[in-house]
Amino acid sequence: MRRASFLYLAAVGVIRKLSLLSLLVAMALPVHAELPDLINRIRPGVVAVGTVKPVKRTDANSGPALKYLGTGFVVGDGLKVITNFHVMPEKLDADAMESLAIFIGHGGVGAAREARVLRSDREHDVVLLGIRGDPLPTLTLAEDDHVREGQEIAFTGFPIGMVLGLYPATHRGIISTITPVVIPAESARSLTAAQIRRLRSPFDVYQLDAVAYPGNSGSPVYDVRSGKVIGVINSVMVKGTKESALRDPSGISYAIPVRYARALLAAGAGPERK
């Protein structure tokens, strides 16, 4: 009887120790949301970027009332949006009262809000837009640049634009490598003007193993554990330099480190940087 009681008490002690150990391990592990929950949290802060014309000014000669150009995401006070510089229209149709805009909502066409450029960084292909109205849900920018190869990421955007309405799609992958935006060529004759400019002030970009489409330009790349934005999807500018020597450009996707978006946000609406 005593032996049975002893064994029972010993078993209870072991179970308590294991429970305590499990609790300590759980506390030591990083806390992160499940991806579906994270997507639901991220999606309201992702917007479409494009141009809009008043309906009364739209006719067969002036083109469509809405034009989709890329993806963006809301930051800061809820009235600022980050996207790629190359997403910006080269020229707006003043006669048709065309204006830069973002589109919000889910499904259908969505609501348009007029936007303006607050700050831009052409070199790193990022731009900060300002909007008016009620603040929108925001995404959090990572505080540092401790991004590692193999790190799990996801990005959310509009790969085929607004053809089927505002339905943001999410792609998941990893950081395949951290690589220079341009690699020196064997001969100076094979260098393009863009490559020469970037060789003068090189910077690293993230190569991803997930496929991004043209409409994804400006999409937030975020860590799947913390949900913080670590980069901005960019294929046009990077491919134009890094893969210019390839006869058939690859399907590899790239992202600009978030530090450049963070710098624009910190500068706010000060003098614009070209």
Entry keywords:
274 residues; alpha+beta; Thrombin, subunit H; six-stranded antiparallel β-barrel; 5 helices; 22% helix; 30% strand
Summarize the structure.
Helix content is 22%, strand content 30%. The chain is an alpha+beta fold and 274 residues long.
Q: How many DSSP E strands?
A: 12
What is the highest CATH level, the class of the largest domain?
Answer: Mainly Beta
What number of structural domains do the residues give? Answer: 2
Cα-based radius of gyration, to the nearest Å? 24 Å
CATH fold node name of the largest domain? Thrombin, subunit H
CATH homologous superfamily (4th level) name of the largest domain: Trypsin-like serine proteases
Largest sheet: 6 strands, antiparallel, barrel
Structural class: alpha+beta
Integer average pLDDT: 80
State the helical fraction.
10-25%
**Number of distinct helices:** 5
Order of helices and strands: HHEEEEEEEEHEEEHEH
In spatial order, strands of the major sheet run: 1-2-3-6-5-4
Percent of sequence in beta strands: 25-35%
What would you say this structure looks like, in words?
This protein is α+β, with helices and mostly antiparallel strands and 274 residues long. It has two domains: 45-131, Thrombin, subunit H; 152-267, Thrombin, subunit H (Beta Barrel). Strand 4 and strand 5 (111-121) form a beta hairpin. The protein has a six-stranded antiparallel barrel. Strands 7-8-9-12-11-10 form a six-stranded antiparallel beta barrel. The longest helix has 27 residues, at 2-28. The protein contains five helices and twelve strands. Helix content is 22%, strand content 30%. The termini are far apart.
